[in-house]
Amino acid sequence: MELGEVEAAHLRLIRRGHERAVKVPADLATALARTTSLAQGIWARARAADDVAGFLPTLEGVVNLRRQEAAALAGDGPLYDALLEDYEPGTSAADIAGLFDRMRPRLVALRERVLGAGHPPKGLSGAFGEAGQLALAQEVAEAFGYDMLHGRIDQAVHPFSSGSGKDVRITTRVDEAEPLGCLYSTIHEVGHATYEQNIDDAYLLSALGQGVSMGVHESQSRIYENQLGRSTAFTGWLFNRMRAHFDEIGLPDEAAFHAAVNRVSAGFIRTEADEVHYNLHIMLRFDLERALIAGDLAVADLEAAWNDRFESDFGVRVDRPSHGMLQDVHWSVGLFGYFPTYALGNVYAGCLHEAMRRDIPALDEHLAEGDPSPATAWLRERLQRHGGLRTPRETIMEATGAEISEAPLLDYLDAKFGAIYDL
């Protein structure tokens, strides 16, 4: 009997999940769960105290356990690839390394031109109360298609999205001195949330009823946040909504606001990075964690390796561990192989944006009215509704009608920041 596409996809995902589960010994799975649960709290205390030495023994234990898990899963293949499979099935470390090698020269060159331009945009100033930020955040979330009947917005230290199907919730953060963090964190999480909300109801509570990979998931959050939310057209509308909510914001016009929203600076923190620097943050983490899993980098040498690489890539020395190797939670909870999916999401978003612009030539007219619905409808139809039906690569290629390439993302970044910084 020949299976249809849906039935074959169900069997593919069920078989993959089962095969991976039975390869990991029960005692190893138990040790991983126990160690990573404890490690997160140890990391949080170490980060607050800038205490690398207090975290290293715990990290050593997590790395050793994940290497054992990778060995159980990998067969004759590379250990890191076995871990990467949890987050981006069908992608190898060699594929990602090649992609990053092609991206790095253009990103570094753009970074040098932007930072050398000598006229950084002015930032916002004014009074940005919590109530006003949350009200505008909800307005923006609903504009991007977030269904509040099947979700809600709360506050957290680190924004996130959780849930699927008919219950998908997001969080945002509020800093009364810096409202853009709240707004763009919200848009970012709405990208994740609407992906889950828009999956075909026929797939609910099944193996197909969730996003197909972390890279594809990140493509949705990044295209909502950046290509749409930080576009000239949408920021023109948002400037006027900011003035309506907060009156004076310290900027004279829409162009100045667009530049402020897209300001480039070589900061330490990945989650606060602009579009030019973000992928360089990911490349650093990918190379270091790949070396850790391969046994080419000792945990005891990680801080020095991080600091040297950061100074080489960003031109500044890390001033304290919480701005360096202790800033992210991922390694403490064993998420080796997760970081590269953030950059893959940016590459996928570049491909999707290029195809979307081709199919919706009047998109900017809608964005200038605060209406991203033509774009979100395009994403819903082309990608989101299919859930896990296809592999990650097939998902992007079916949506765009083209091979996956870093070129659309890099061309977009060159054009955008070339215009803002008059390069």
UniProtKB/TrEMBL annotation:
InterPro entries: Peptidase_M32_Taq (IPR001333). Coiled coil: none annotated. Its EC number is 3.4.17.19. The keyword Hydrolase applies. GO terms for molecular function: metallocarboxypeptidase activity. One of its GO terms (biological process) is proteolysis. It is an enzyme of class 3 (hydrolase). This is Thermostable carboxypeptidase 1.
